[in-house]
Amino acid sequence: MRQVNVWIIVGIWAFLSLDGILLALWQGYTGRSFASTATTISLLLFFMLLFAARGVADKFSNASGPGSGLAICVFVFLLYLIYLIGTGTFALGRVGIIAAFIFAPLAFAMSGEKSAPGSSQDFLTLAAVWAFVKFGPSHYLWPYPGSRLAYTFTVLVAVNVAIATFLLARKTQGVGYTIGWGKDWAFYILTSFLLFGCVAIPLGISMHFITLAPEWSHWSSFLGLSLGILIFTAWPEELLFRGLLQNLLARSSKNEFAGWWTSSVLFGLAHITNNGHFPNWRYVILATIAGLFYGWTWRKTNSLFASALLHAAVDVTWHFLFRTP
Prior knowledge:
Number of helices: 13
Shape: globular
Distance between the termini: 41 Å
Order of helices and strands: EHHHHHHHHEHEHHHHE
């Protein structure tokens, strides 16, 4: 695999940040609140992307030693304080909640520092991070602008916490936290995409979960929406369910097959509350099947980037071509 270097990552980050800032300015956002929000989200995105560059995680961990994970967590916490102060929304309750979210997973995972990958602390830490993103008070924590960026901010913080905890502090191997391209990747991604479509589309229609309803008038937003899904949905979910959960399950059970299938079922169950219905078993079934294809692609490529591209392609296709009744 040819993994991108730091300068390409900086270029990608600069492009995404500049586009986001220009879009916000075009929508009329200005002033101190906007500046602090833009700074916070841009730097959180920077560290999320930075550690996917060639050799950065190893170099940072070797240079900073055991405190490397803590250093990232402290930086994320300071960014949150900048956001609160800059937007005039400072409250001790918010500070306490975010501090617990940032530092507790790191401390808990490090309590099993000498244990092998796949310890109980690892899985409980993953569960806590997922639960906070899924059910945490994100709208309370990120009130500006009108809580519209609450999900985005929460995901960015969660990814940075996972980087600090598992990539740096625990030095978990085989995560595949990379951006690059490798031999036969196009084959793996395209094959998985087509085979999943052949299974999921007839099954979804027969279960009355999806109907064909192309959104031709919305295709002008294709590029922006695709990037948003890739960065803020596909990449974080692939990190959690493939790079960490499937990886650690396979290591703890010493069985790649068990790790693959178990993580796929858990990925499906994680969608049981989606689309405003509970229990949404139809979504669980389709998400489980999707997880099997994502997990296969991740294992064949050893990269989150490949499985995230597949994941994003599925979500974008669903968004533009199908409707959930």
